[in-house]
Fold this sequence. Notes:
Blueprint: H1 8-17, E1 22-25, H2 26-31, E2 41-46, H3 50-62, E3 66-67, H4 82-86, E4 90-95, E5 98-103, H5 112-118, E6 120-124, E7 127-131, H6 134-144, H7 147-166
Parallel strand pairs: 2-5
Antiparallel strand pairs: 1-2, 3-4, 4-5, 6-7
Helix pairs in contact: 6-7
Amino acid sequence: MVPRSFDFDRIVEALTDHGVKFVVIGGLAAVAQGSPFPTEDVDVTPEMTRDNLDRLSAALRDLDARIRTDAVPDGLPFDHDGESLGAAGVWNLVTPHGWLDISMVPAGTGGYADLVADARELDIMGIQVRVASLADVIRSKQAANRAKDQRVLPTLREILANRDLDTK
């Protein structure tokens, strides 16, 4: 089940069809706000209520989501419900439509409630979704302190600074 292409529409459609409350984070959130750096996956932070996580579980079943691993390109099947999803901090998944990463509490944030407070409703590939603010994306990437994040941070900070200047 190695994805042939990245199909943001189908992934988000499954989440929204099931009524999952989530915020788009990471590289896709940055791209939606002007980042020139491409991304290969959809990163989201869901609301951590049991009902919402149960809806997320149903969406993952519809997406035929599997645990992403280098050793098994099609991913490993896994049994899940809202309780088991909430028990882990991060899920790196593969679907026939692309990679989906779920981070319950991204580095440097307080999770969904923190991120949704400043999230923006944006159109990504024709779909309206809540997207973490660029300042929150920067905050999280800074806290994660991964090499790939450090490479993009100067550009993201410049985009934010220029946008702030435009609004003054």
